[in-house]
Design a protein that fits this description.
CATH topology of the largest domain: Dihydrodipicolinate Reductase, domain 2
Strand order of the largest sheet: 13-12-11-7-10-9-8-14
Number of helices: 12
Shape: globular
Structural class: alpha/beta
Helix content: 25-40%
Number of domains: 2
Number of strands: 14
Distance between the termini: 40 Å
Strand content: 25-35%
Order of helices and strands: EHEHEHEHEHEHEHHHHEEEEEEHHE
CATH class of the largest domain: Alpha Beta
Radius of gyration: 20 Å
CATH superfamily of the largest domain: Dihydrodipicolinate Reductase, domain 2
Length: 349
């Protein structure tokens, strides 16, 4: 049994805690938070942009730590699940791997490349796993695309376009300050850069146009350049949508023998799938494939944590959760920012 210690009981800590309940071979045995009410099990103050509000949790059978360092020192913890604000990631990851712990840290890995590089190197030196919780590939529609491409049943990828937009969030004081998050070009768009790199490989160059506020990218249109025979890939992402469009995402995937479409989001207060996942082929009518995974609000997080537990048990990094891949996704975000500022194509070094 892999024993998990969750550090940080905000919305993501709550989500990971709920997701872990159905993980096979692993369970949460400890939590760390400075909030005394949360240590006692009162999580009613927790509210996110999806899923239920937090309630009352029985913490009597958990080890509860006011100081996360005490959790890191606990010899009975195998995997530290860090759900702290991004600007705290580097410090706590470095302390965790120095304590010999495997780590799953929420995305993005860090706010700057130097910090990300230090984190990756520290884990390598310590011989521990550094995994970054990029959950998007575990959502059913995106998982279907990954598995379809891997099977090559419809031929190779020719082109793809992705979209991910939000209105500036009002539901969280921490989220409303985009400066602490690195701008939406990092905090939000990192999902796309990670998934594109996972699906297609890290591109060679990027050409981007966008909107910059306080030196941070808040909206971006990007073209990703691969080798001459590689796919044509583009993305639009940012945090400038109107208040009545809190969130929307989707994709168009063009394969040699099929096209996969998906578009959904929150319009007003209603979740609308204006184009449910649809597979169009050269034969027959378009259809909506049966999707993998569970139907609960935190099912994707259960799948993510299951991969992390499997990695710890086997001593081998889960490719989707790779700290190096997460660092490369961040690298892409900085290349996009440079392309916007210079108006030029930028090499992703």
């Amino acid at each position: 049994m892999i024993r998990i210690g969750v550090v940080g009981i905000g919305f993501m800590g709550f989500t990971h805690f709920e997701g872990a309940k159905k993980v096979k071979g692993g369970r949460v045995t400890a939590i760390a938070t400075r909030n005394q009410k949360k240590l006692a099990g009162d999580w009613t103050s927790i509210q996110g942009n999806f899923g239920p509000r937090g309630g009352h949790v029985d913490t009597s059978k958990l080890k509860t730590y006011h100081d996360y360092r005490d959790l890191l020192a606990d010899p009975d913890i195998d995997l530290v699940d860090l759900c702290l604000p991004t600007d705290l990631h580097e410090q706590v990851v470095l302390e965790a791997v120095a304590a010999g712990k495997h780590v799953l840290v929420e995305k993005p890995i860090a706010l700057d490349l130097q910090a990300a590089n230090r984190m990756v190197r520290a884990a390598e030196k310590a011989g521990t796993l550094l995994m970054v919780a990029h959950v998007l590939p575990y959502f059913p529609e995106f998982r279907y695309v990954t598995e379809t491409l891997a099977s090559q049943r419809y031929g190779k990828l020719l082109a793809a376009h992705f979209r991910r937009v939000i209105a500036p969030p009002k539901w969280s004081s921490e989220m409303s300050d985009y400066r602490r998050l690195g701008g939406w070009g990092i905090d939000l768009h990192i999902h796309d850069n990670h998934y594109i790199s996972h699906l297609c490989g890290v591109p060679k160059r990027v050409v981007s146009r966008g909107l910059v506020q306080d030196g941070l990218v808040n909206h971006v249109h990007s073209q990703y350049a691969y080798e001459e025979a590689g796919p044509a890939v583009s993305c639009v992402s940012g945090g400038i949508a109107a208040a009545s469009l809190p969130f929307a995402h989707g994709f168009e995937i063009y394969l040699e023998q099929a096209t996969i479409l998906y578009s959904a989001g929150t319009i007003g207060t209603e979740w609308v799938a204006d184009r449910p996942l649809t597979l169009a082929t050269n034969r027959g009518k378009p259809r909506q494939p049966k999707l993998p995974g569970g139907s609960e609000w935190c099912s994707a997080y259960t799948a993510e944590l299951q991969d992390a537990v499997k990695a710890v048990r086997g001593g081998r990094e889960a490719p989707i959760l790779s700290g190096t891949l997460a660092r490369d996704a961040l690298k892409l975000s900085f290349a996009e920012a440079k392309s916007i500022s210079t108006g030029r194509s930028v090499k992703v070094s």
